[in-house]
Each structure stands twice: as C-alpha cells, then as structure tokens.
Design goal:
mainly alpha, Arp2/3 complex 21 kDa subunit ARPC3, two-stranded antiparallel sheet, 7 helices, globular
Length: 193
C-alpha cells in the first residue's frame, strides 16, 4: 500500500470516528433526527471521492451499529440492521461522486459550479441514506405507525422530515466551508483531473 493510500485510509478512519462522536450530541428535533456525522463525511467525500467516502461511511455505520444500535433497540434483525446501519451510512459517501467536478471548479474559481456540484452531491448522498431508512421504516418499523396511518406514509413523514433537515444543515455547513476553508476540499497529494 502506498503512502497516499495509507493517508486516505487513516483520514477516513478519523472521519468515521468523528462522525460517530458527533452522534452522541443531542440530535432530536421533535420526531426528527439530525445526523451531525453527515457533515464531516460530506467534506471527506468531496475531498477524497466516492470510494473513500463509501468506505468511511461503512466504518461509521458499523461503529453506530455496535455502539448505539444494539443497545438502543435500533437493531431488530440482521437484514434491518444491514440496511439501516452499514448500507445507509455508507450511502452518504456517494457525496464523493461530486468530488472531481467540484475540485475542478474550485481550481478554476468557478464559484457557482463549485457550489452546484457540492450541494447536488450532498443532496444525492443524504437522499440515498434516508431512502434506505425509509425502506427499513416501511418494512420493519411500520407497526409503530399510529392507528389508521399506512406504514409508507409513517416512514415517509419520519424519514423525509429528517432527510430535509439533514440536507439543509449539511448543505449550509459545506457551503460555508467552501467559502471560509476551501483547502479542506483539496488534498495536497493529488490534483484534480
């Protein structure tokens, strides 16, 4: 393994640990949940790309499963646990699909494109995460729906609201970081293609 790959792996592990630590901050707004860990994973994914982002998200999901899922009643069965923890958290790494175009726009100082790529990619990663939570909500958590409410609507309201809240928060922070600390998105050891 080259030094560059080792650096990317170490960076990803630190980001996963930071994302996990942020999950211990109070994060409920009524029935909605804020996932602060999306923010460092978004920055990392936009810095290192989707493969590194998926890997770091997977580690974060496994950490969350073992440290919170098993103990909090969030784990119902192996398939639900797989969908809502490793897969959903890894899906946030898809934000990295926008890394190359966003970095090229950053180098060319094309602010509009830079923000467009970063926000669009963030939208994709957050939506993928909450789509997986929505699917699990329909099939595994639907029995908690209020009487007369369909599991689909129940899951859509619960997960859709959380998705919107997290999308707004992550987009705002990523946008602010692009303005105030653009170097966070450009690793020194690689140049955008």
């Amino acid at each position: 393994m080259s030094n560059r790959h080792l650096l990317v792996w170490i960076e990803g592990t630190v980001i996963a640990a930071l994302a996990m630590a942020l999950e211990y901050l109070p994060h409920a707004v009524g029935p909605l949940n804020i996932s602060y860990g999306i923010i460092p994973l978004a920055v990392y994914s936009l810095r290192r790309g989707w493969k590194a982002g998926l890997s770091s998200g997977l580690v974060w999901g496994l950490l969350d499963l073992f440290l919170r899922g098993f103990g909090s009643g969030g784990f119902l069965n192996p398939l639900q646990g797989l969908i809502e923890y490793p897969l959903a958290f890894a899906a946030v790494g898809l934000i990295g699909l926008g890394a190359g175009p966003m970095q090229r726009a950053l180098v060319r100082q094309q602010r509009g494109w830079m923000f467009g790529y970063a926000i669009s990619a963030t939208f994709l990663g957050v939506l993928c995460k909450y789509f997986l939570h929505f699917v699990a909500g329909v099939f595994y958590w639907g029995s908690y729906a209020p009487k007369g409410m369909s599991p689909v609507l129940y899951s859509l309201v619960a997960n859709g609201g959380s998705a919107i809240l997290n999308l707004i928060l992550a987009s705002l922070v990523v946008g602010l970081l692009l303005v105030s600390a653009p170097h966070l998105f450009m690793p020194k050891n690689i140049q955008p293609a």
